Amino acid sequence: MRNKICLLWLSFLMSTLIFAQPCTTPSLRTANNQFAFDIYKGLLKGSSPVFFSPYSIYTALHMTGEGANGITATEMQQTLHSTGLVNCIRQDIQYSLKQFKLLEQMGDSIRTANALWLQEGFPVNPEFSSLVADSYQAGLHMTNFSNNPEVGRQAINTWTAEQTNNRIKELLVKGVVTTGTRLVLVNTIWFKGKWADPFKKENTAEKMFYAEMDSVKVPFMNNTSVVKYAENELAQLIELPYRSNKLSMVIVLPVKGREVDFEKSFNEEKLRGWMDSMQSEKTSIHLPKFKMECTFQLGDMLQSLGMHSAFLSLQIFPESARRRLKSVP
Predict the structure, then answer these.
(1) Which residues contact 7 (CB under 8 A, 6 or more apart)?
(2) Structural domain of residue 169, as residue ranges?
């Protein structure tokens, strides 16, 4: 249980990185957080640690949904909690992408990139190409999956490595891309930041970290600092700001023995309420060094959330021939 919960540290990191939006409603923040918890609840059913970027998944799907209509568009919007908010959320994503570029001047860096890889011969309306380029800073790439899926796979992996400073060198393993592949959505996100109150290297010490089945000795960063903190009957929360003071890491640690109760009741509303209750306090902080990886079948999960039509056949968004992204007959 503990190894799952500790990954909340980063699971919701990208949910809290949304800047003040130009729209009058908190559209992207709210919709993204609701979607994040939908994915989180689905991932908890598995046995692997939970590590994902809701913002990345959400942005890639919202971008692709711009080319859908009819039942496909309806299902995608319901899954993304974006019904009636598509235009506003597009503006918010566009605004966030611009703000990310300004962060480097403030001491933090977020680099995010979007791309769609389509089968050669797939007719794409120029309006859709312009939309994803202008609003999502995304590129459309054509490759011949039907005749040589390996070339397409390697091209996608090369692009991904370039966007992540070689942190992700093989996004797609052999066999994932096949002759039946028609569309691959790729979103990358790379973050590097410095703490507003840095952990001193000389304060690092080895301590025991207790996972679900065993324990291991790992280096812990240690610091005492005035940060936002809250605790209740289910969890402790702490917010650690980065140097720009535009970004922070929110850590949620379930109370020992209450992990099951925590999982059952944890949701977007509860997290927001807990964060609103946080107060600045002088706090002793101990964080273990960790590395996380997580692979899961997003398609199956999206279908379980109600997004069925987009996966019915090799046709991509079959209703969209009258709109932006046309399907292959």
Answers:
(1) 49, 50, 51, 292, 294
(2) 2-194+292-322
